[in-house]
Structure formats: structure tokens, C-alpha cells
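Supplementary Note 3. Input sequence used for the single-chain structure prediction.
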Amino acid sequence: MGIKYVIHPAIYFVMLIFEVVGMNLAAGVFTAHKSDKTRFVIGSAVMVILVLLIDVFIFDFHKTGTRSLLIMGLLFFQFKYVGQISFAKCGVQTAVLFLVMIIADTTVLLFAKLVFADSLALLYDNYIFMYALYLSIFYMITFLASIMNIRIIKLDKIKV
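The predicted structure, written as C-alpha cells, is reproduced below.
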């Protein structure tokens, strides 16, 4: 049913907050779209609670393709609420975020295979370390794009 991961619920809750806030920040940076701070906080809080409930009660802490697809769908509707934009622009913003997430995931896997080649199985068992590594690389990519003013697409200039 996918990869089962073991993590303390309190640690997972904190890391999930960092992940959801990071996803929203990355979506804003890479699409050059500003959103209302109040809606940002409310949308992020609702998203964290929904993902936590989904992981606990539906997927039992298993990483599956269905879980990832469901979370991307939730992000789509969160972008609609937070950004107050059209559904087409939400789709573009979700696709851009998906691309950035693939880059971060690939970077983590390459780093893990290069640095921890001898103990890769042990590294996969330590989910907290991999999750923290993913979050740090994700935030670093977003930070570098922000200071270098890198945009994949300017969402506000799209006429949809």
C-alpha cells in the first residue's frame, strides 16, 4: 500500500506546518502572486489539519500516489481560497508547485544516494531526517528564487 513511515505525531504536526507554509510561499514566489495574509494563515491552518486527519484516519501514515494526488487537489482549492483567483490560474499555480516539489524530491534523493550510499536503507528508515532534509532543500530553493527574482510564470499577467 505504499511506504509506511514512522514519526511522532507532534513532530509530524510541526513539520507539516512548515511544509504547507513553504508550499504556499513557493507557489507565491514562483508565480509572482501575492495573497492576503489572513487568508494565507486560515488556508494554511485548514490545510494542515486536513492533511493530518487524512494521514491518521485514511492512509495510516502510508505514502502513496493516491495520497499525493489528494493533497495536490487540496492545495488546488487552497490556492483558490487564499489567492482569490480563477480555477485556471489555480491549476497553473498547482502545476508550478508540483514542478518545484519534484525538483526538491529529486535533489533529496540524489543527495541521499551520494552521501549515504552505504547506509541508504537506514536513511530511508529515518523518516524524520529525510523529511527535514526535504523541507530545508525546499525552503532553500524558494529562498534562492526569491532573492534572485526567478519566476516560472507571472500569474497576474495571464488572461484567463
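Helices lie at 9-31, 37-58, 65-83, 87-115, 120-125, 127-147. Residues 89 and 122 are 41 Å apart (CA to CA).
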